[in-house]
Predict the 3D structure of the following.
Amino acid sequence: MRRREPVYDAQRHERWHMGPARWIKLAACVLAMLLMHRLMGNWAMVVVISSPLWGIFLASEILGGASGLKRRLRALYWRDREGVHYEFKGVYISVEEDVGQRWIRLEDLGRALGEKPNEMLLRRLDAEGLREIDRELYVLDDLVLRYLAERSSDRALSLRGWVQRTIWHPARQRR
């Protein structure tokens, strides 16, 4: 019989820590206080002695809540940029997708390349490979690869490999 490997299930982990675990910890704190009160008979002493236990319980809940809040805020922030946020060596590159084709913003391409791309050369290579989207000029990813192949700088070679690996190839796999 084959043994199954344990798989981490994030939703199950979240459900456990948001549900039963919280109530078990709370019950343990209350029971500890009641037991101490039964043994000592003085509520003031019980509160002083059990405060570290409550501190541990509350700290884990506060840190867990802060972590969940951070995760939710991050997801909310990136929701609009999901699938179109790309970055090459610290330069943000805007990519628009249209029917299996990806269009790269010309201005971002220039910043990543370190020089403004020659628009006339791009038009000569492929006039259909340039398009205006939201008053910005975008270049088809195939045309970007052809343009960068003609460039001889190390930066252009590096950018070409990055575009091919990160933008061009995944778009072709989805077709």
In short: Residues 43-78 form the longest helix (36 residues). The chain has two domains: 10-78, 85-174.
